Amino acid sequence: MKIGQTSVVYFVSRIFASLFGFIATIYFARLLGAEPLGIYNLVIGVVSWLAIAGKIGISGAITKRVSEGEEREQYATAGITLIAVLFIILLTSLLLFRPYVNDYLGHPATGYVVLILFVTLSWSIVTSLLTGLHLVHLEGVLSPIKIGGQSLLQIGAVAAGLGVAGLFIGHIAGLVLVTALGGMYAFSRFKKIQLPQKYHYRSLFNYAKFAWLGNLESRMFNYTDVVVLGFFVPSALIGIYSIAWNIAMFLILFSGSISTTLFPEMSKQSVNEDSQSIANLLEDALSYAGLLLIPGLIGGLILGERILRIYGDEFTQGTAVLGILIISALVRAYQKQLLNTLNAIDRPDLSFRANALFVVVNLSLNVALIYLYGWIGAAVATVLSVAVSLVVAHCYLKSLVEYTIPYAEIANQWFAAIIMGVIVYAGLQFENTHTVLGHNAATVVLLVGVGASVYFATLLVISSQFRTTVNRNVPFDIPLAHN
């Protein structure tokens, strides 16, 4: 399968998964309100932090070593063993400090934390193996199964009156389902389970000692603000912030699909010492990292209040936060491609330094700005810290790989997005004045659909590179996609 097609399969799968999640979240928001969602997201944030300690970069090391193609079985077994030992240590700690954990969460949820942590670590092993085996598209296919299973079970449990406990139960069950399915497929690709030697553990450790901070950086980008907000604001505001964050993260799905797909290919080329191929892959990644985020930012600024109103009137408080979070997602999209390349070319030490800077800046700014400005401060802290990391990662990578930033293609995307924005804004003003539809959700869906059509049609007209990419990867004929 072509890399572009693999990215599209992975992305489309994630889109369907996210749509399941959106529908379920709207249901929970309207039925339960913001506070239970705040508790749920705080628990998920805590688990994500604990998962860093449960992997300390080992899952990334598994992906790297398995993708190299040599002694895959031994590396897989060694990695699973190490993660199992770390989970036992975390389990013991959580049980010892259970009262304090419950106090922080504002809910007796330590037992759920343990269960979610276990299935999260198990799922991380499976995804690491699938990515290392160049089966990224299969991991993507499992995403809608995971989210769909979680959403259906959560809806059923909440409807049965289980409240926030239903959210936890559905989350766990969905992860168990996809872990079992993905695990069966991944392990079927191995010839047989082989016991690792000391050097297998040593090789994983040598990569993981730098890669663990990448996991920390990723979790900090996703959850530092939520976890720190837990000390300063009510659960209801955390729930609203989390909704805004989820919308921003929806827009970064395509960028994430690119980096996930390209990692094993770059890793393979790095073993072959083909720096030109790596540069070409990176330039392609940078060309399309903002493909959805750039129009998403403009569309979010115009339609943000109406989008949040779908979840309930109380969620419209997060309109300003949503715009800032989409900016952070856009910067993150480019930063992630650079860090992904550093790791793929076996320079996790440089990625470690960029990530370390992000960790320090992000944590410091979150504490300071949340204390001073509340949740607006949390969003601004995320933008500033990821921007600093982007600049540092670029400087490191530029010294190793001769690549060119595709300014022209990025400019084309901005131009098409501005044209889209003018039309969407005009449509919104017309609806506000004449009330043709008179239904908020219908208005949002219509304007998003019109905006997306205008954006991609304009981009096909003005960008020869985009036309070429579409022709190469779409299996059917698109009239505007001819050079």
TrEMBL record:
Subcellular location(s) of the protein: Cell membrane
InterPro entries assigned: Poly_Biosynth_Transport, Polysacc_synth
TM region positions: 7-27, 39-63, 75-97, 109-136, 157-187, 223-241, 285-303, 315-334, 379-397, 409-428, 440-462
Membrane topology: Multi-pass membrane protein
Gene Ontology cellular-component terms listed: plasma membrane
UniProt main location, coarse: membrane
A Pfam family recorded for this sequence: Polysacc_synt
Assigned keywords, A-Z: Cell membrane, Membrane, Transmembrane, Transmembrane helix
Domain of life, per lineage: Archaea
Protein name: Membrane protein involved in the export of O-antigen and teichoic acid
Protein source organism: Halostagnicola kamekurae
Lineage, highest ranks first: Archaea, Methanobacteriati, Methanobacteriota, Stenosarchaea group, Halobacteria
